[in-house]
Design a protein that fits this description.
By secondary structure, the protein is an alpha+beta fold. It is built from nine helices and eight strands. Helix content is 60%, strand content 18%. Strands 3-2-5 form a three-stranded antiparallel β-sheet, with helices on one face. The chain has a three-stranded antiparallel β-sheet with strand order 6-7-8. Strand 6 and strand 7 form a beta hairpin. Helix 4 crosses helix 6. The protein is rod-shaped, with a radius of gyration of 69 Å.
Length: 334
């Protein structure tokens, strides 16, 4: 009986010990590493995802995310240099390095909510510094796209100033379109409408300009084509005129040569006739014969003596020849 009581008491105590150890078992989530605190002091080790044991009621643990995470701030005030306000929703994509050294350093210096002093608390002051240099119109319309790059650079510089640039990576900063109250939103919608109308008018003007330039270019091309056509036609006409002139020149030269040969032939003929006449007229008998022929052809009946001054018609013979015939006739009659 006594042995049974001892066994029962030992079993109960072992069960109680096992049950007392259960609160010490904890789980570390995937994508995280666990850090531990004991008596308010952070222990110098971490654990990977899975089940782990800690001293219950003495040691506490916290999951620290080591994958890319997006921290978001809403309604960050952006005050202009004229007192107007816009409200920004800003997202910061960042990641803590998974090495134990980086995790312990970052958490020990900035607590498990390290992104609050390094990111969240830093952004509003930098936004205020940026916005105070511009009017609300500039912030909403023209300068808004620059703020994300400015904030990214400022946050990276801030992390670097704490010596954590190898442990905390800030990949990008995303900023939603500034939010305005109803009155300012209506004003900016009107401004945007006017800007769109101006842009449309400019686009229409550019389109008309392009159309007119195209039309002018077509007209210039048509003029150039007509000019080239006229030049070609003039060249053709010039070549035709030159060809006609060359042909006429050849015809004139041929005609001239023909007439020159005819003239030469006529001159030769006349020279030959002259030479023949000269030979004939130098023969007294021929002259006498011709005189007799002429007298015979123009014979007249004369009764009595022939007057000494009678004109004997010898036809078309030259006067000298007629005189010669007349003298010969008189000598014969005597």
């Amino acid at each position: 009986m006594f042995k049974q009581l001892i066994f029962i008491s030992l079993f109960a105590s072992s069960q109680a010990g096992i049950l007392s150890l259960i609160p010490g078992v904890h789980e570390c989530q995937q994508g995280h590493k666990c850090v531990y605190y004991r008596g308010g002091s952070m222990l110098n080790y971490t654990n990977n995802p899975g089940y782990h044991f800690k001293f219950p009621f003495i040691t506490s643990h916290h999951d620290i995310q080591i994958t890319w995470q997006t921290d978001k701030l809403t309604d960050v005030v952006c005050g202009s240099n004229r007192g107007g306000r816009a409200y920004l929703d800003i997202e910061v994509v960042n990641k803590l390095h998974h090495s134990e050294e980086c995790i312990l350093k970052t958490v020990s210096e900035h607590t498990i909510e390290y992104d609050k002093p390094l990111v969240f608390d830093y952004i509003p002051s930098e936004v205020a510094q940026f916005c105070k240099n511009y009017t609300l119109d500039d912030i909403v319309i023209r300068e808004f796209d620059k703020l994300d790059e400015v904030l990214l650079e400022k946050l990276q510089d801030n992390v670097r100033s704490y010596g954590l640039d190898d442990c905390l990576s800030i990949k990008t900063v995303r900023i939603a379109r500034p939010k305005l109250d109803d009155r300012m939103r209506a004003k900016f919608e009107e401004i945007e409408h006017e800007e769109k109308q101006k842009a449309l008018a400019i686009q229409q003007k550019e389109t008309e300009k392009v159309r007119l330039e195209a039309q002018l270019q077509r007209e210039i091309m048509e003029k150039e084509r007509q000019q080239k056509t006229n030049e070609i036609e003039m060249n053709i006409q010039k070549m035709k005129t030159q060809a006609d002139a060359e042909r006429q020149k050849i015809i004139d030269e041929m005609e001239f040569e023909k007439k020159r040969r005819q003239a030469d032939a006529e001159r030769y003929r006349l020279e030959q006739i002259a030479e023949g006449n000269e030979l004939l007229f130098s023969n007294p008998n021929y002259i006498k014969l011709e005189g007799f022929k002429a007298s015979h052809n123009n014979a007249k009946l004369i009764i009595g003596d022939v007057p000494q001054n009678a004109l004997i018609n010898l036809g078309d013979l030259p006067q000298q020849t007629q005189k010669y015939v007349y003298d010969s006739f008189n000598r014969t009659s005597a």
